[in-house]
Design a protein that fits this description.
alpha/beta, 11 strands
Length: about 500
């Protein structure tokens, strides 16, 4: 069972493998929930109902034949729609990819299927993963599962909302500047970014190639660990994928935190809303109460992360998105010659935020400005990495807020890009450094909406990070339980 009492992905898979439940029944329940709730939430861009039923039947056939379908047998999974799926539309929530059906699966999709998971659909996102609210989709915004007047976060808001609403037990997103962790915090689920290179990016439609990582959404830390173990590990198709086995994240979940050195990062608390900072302080107190050695720490270089990110990421995006030219796939707007066709196609195909970032990145890379902007941002990135190296000599992990506020209203920040960009101020540092980080639900803000506490760890220390995350989850559950006698008459 998960912390909220619902069936965990691991429990569902175990029941299917033992023949106590059929994969088909699990998938039908998920499809029924999507049909009932998604018209309001708009978490999904495409529901692959027929394919999901066929995959579930294949899992049940393996069980009947006495074979093991895998650790995620029959578990429904939602995929962010920037992950390539063979024969299933992959749009990145952009008109420019209208009608494109990839001829291959992303490596993570192949690994999910090999583990017995069933892909039920593709979820909404900010166009090309550029945003923090899932309002920048050409197909309309996704809504928060607890309050439909609010955003679910972004850019992986569709997957976060689908898991947060209980439509699926597991989801995948991509995290370039916090796009898994920030919506996880806002939707009250677990969201995790692995160390850069731990999970293959093959088949992930690129935004910023030196920052992108695929990560899990789940309703419990244990399910997130299980999903990471399934999708991680070396892939020769991705030259940036590390040649090492997947982390054994599940083995550290019950270890506890006694003796671990935990730093409460001042920069990940100071600029957050009061109700968010209170939850972080409570998490730190609770960890100390269970034996962790908790101290305050300042990493001032973190304050430079936002500025560096919004030069590096758009610069890489401007290069990656040059391939959408109206010639090879997707949208094509006819014009008298190739140059005009290319311009007309990109004008019609890309939304305002994508255009904004392409122009910003092209400017930062242009002659005469490269050293002043892009080159300087990369030097700042190096300073941040060195600062993390220093602080991790003193601490095993850092904790702080995942997002500076709880979920904000739909439309509230659309006209103010700078305020929207600040939504990722707590998550961006880990993308620039390439280190792992995870968001764990820890209580609610004054508005009753979820707050996430973030655990940051050094490169390749996923197991230690999950150790602390699992402890936080137990502590959050203990705080949520009514005191003895409370509520009784």
């Amino acid at each position: 069972m998960t912390a909220d009492g619902s069936d965990s992905a691991a429990a569902l898979a175990d029941a299917v493998r033992r023949g106590e439940r059929s994969a088909r029944s699990v998938v039908e329940a998920a499809l029924g929930g999507i049909a009932a709730r998604d018209p309001e939430l708009h978490a999904f861009l495409h529901v692959a109902a027929d394919g999901a039923r066929a995959d579930a039947d294949a899992v049940d056939e393996k069980v009947r034949a006495g074979e093991d379908p895998g650790p995620l047998a029959g578990v429904p999974v939602a995929l962010k729609d920037n992950l390539c799926t063979r024969g299933i539309p992959t749009t990145c929530a952009s008109r420019i990819l209208e009608g494109w059906r990839p001829p291959y699966d992303a490596t993570v999709v192949t690994r999910l299927r090999d583990a017995g998971a069933v892909v039920v659909g593709k979820t909404n996102l900010d166009e090309f993963a550029m945003g923090s609210s899932t309002e920048n989709s050409c197909m309309g915004p996704t809504r928060h599962p607890m309050d439909p007047s609010r955003v679910p976060g972004g850019s992986s808001g569709g997957s976060a909302a689908a898991v947060g609403a209980g439509l699926v037990p597991l989801g995948l997103g991509s995290d370039t500047g916090g796009s898994v962790r920030q919506p996880a915090a806002l939707c009250g689920v677990v969201g995790m970014k692995p160390t850069y290179g731990v999970v293959s990016r093959y088949g992930l439609v690129a935004f910023a190639s030196s920052l992108d990582q695929i990560g899990p959404f789940a309703r419990s830390v244990a399910d997130a660990a299980l999903l990471l173990e399934v999708i991680a590990g070396h892939d020769p198709k991705d030259s940036t994928c590390l040649d090492r086995p997947a982390p054994e994240a599940m083995r550290s979940l019950d270890v506890g935190v006694e003796g671990l050195r935990v730093g409460v990062c001042e920069e990940l608390v100071a600029d957050t809303a009061p109700d968010v900072s209170r939850r972080v302080r409570e998490a730190a107190e609770d960890l100390a109460g269970t034996g962790a050695l908790v101290e305050e720490v300042s990493v001032p270089e973190m304050r430079l992360g936002l500025s560096a990110y919004y030069l590096i990421a758009p610069a890489e995006a401007s290069s990656n998105l040059a391939r959408y030219d109206g010639v090879r796939y997707g949208l094509r707007v006819d014009a008298p010659d190739v140059a005009q066709m290319n311009t007309a196609t990109r004008t019609a195909g890309f939304g305002p935020e994508v255009k904004r970032r392409i122009m910003l990145g092209t400017y930062a890379l242009s002659a005469g400005y490269y050293d002043a902007y892009y080159g300087k941002a990369q030097r700042v990135r190096t300073l941040l990495i060195r600062a993390f190296d220093r602080v991790y000599e003193q601490f095993d992990v850092l904790i702080g807020a995942t997002a500076p506020t709880t979920a904000f209203a739909i439309g509230e920040r659309v006209a103010d890009p700078l305020t929207m960009y600040l939504s990722d101020v707590c998550t961006i540092p880990s993308n620039l450094s390439g280190h792992p980080a995870i968001s764990v639900p820890f209580g609610a803000g004054d508005d009753g909406l979820p707050v996430g506490v973030q655990v940051l760890a050094p490169a390749l220390c996923e197991e230690r990070m999950f150790q602390v995350a699992a402890a936080l989850e137990r502590l959050a559950a203990a705080r949520a339980r009514p005191a003895r006698g409370e509520g009784r008459r």
